Amino acid sequence: MSLVLTESHDTIGTIMMNHAQKRNALSEALIGEITTALKAFQTRHLRAVILRAPAGVKVWSAGHDVSELPNRGRDPLGWSDSLRVLVRAIQEFPAPVIALIEGGVWGGGCEVAMACDLLIATPEATFAITPAKLGVPYNLGGLLTLMNMIPLPVAKEMLFTAQPIPASQALNLGIINHIKSAEEIEPFVYGLAKQMVANSPLSIAVMKEELRLLASAHAITPELFERMQGLRRTVYDSHDYQEGLNAFREKRKPTFEGR
Ligand code: LCV
Which domains does the chain have, with CATH numbers? Predict the structure, then answer.
């Protein structure tokens, strides 16, 4: 059974995450189908892509598939982790990718949504960044995305509380471009896409890539990088990381001991 539905009209492609029973948890299988669809759309030179879930969902994506996170002792969010592969595929796609968001966006789902070029959400949408809830050491790319998108005190509140923020706050913070009702959001998003695909695809593709390169242009010394990798290792080697995974799998609250 396909976990993703795709369609295209004119030069606009749509990718609909459709794994309801796991709340569109970003499993390797689901991510594989999304990246395959993106590659197919790129081959056909589509000029805009909409990433969405079915209309009316309560959960846009439940984030990284926790059942696929490695047990302690291995970096759960390394370069080749499928979630990181998807984030890069969206950021490097040579045309605008627009997130049409209904429902809750959790953890890695926020990273995927924020990797998109524009985010349009319904008023009921919420956004939660959850590594602290699971005991996971967030990756540097994810932190940089947050630093580029939202003021540090707010990024810290989202990271440290792991609580959802409402679409209204996300709009005030500039995380999302527009809030539209469930009835309005689809025609609005496709209207935006139509405006974009009427413009020069080359100009847009180059500006998108230039912005990506400029946003990631943070020079860090090898020593600084190794210090941060060492800090992250203390987390994924920890009792607390394993406890976070076990608690999720056993459907209970974790007991973190700070070790
Ligand atoms: C696997 C799932 C998931 C899931 N993985 O439905 O950003 S980081 O660093 O934290 C990163 C590591 C990350 O993204 O971690 C994941 C962060 N995500 C979350 O914390 C959200 C976890 N999920 C939930 O809180 C609830 O599932 C929500 C509120 C999303 C939906 O609640 P609802 O009551 O509608 P269930 O919880 O009953 O979930 C339905 C099925 O989907 C599975 C869940 O285990 C359940 O499976 P079973 O029917 O087999 O019990 N599921 C949900 N989220 N992230 N599996």
Answer: 4-197 (3.90.226.10)
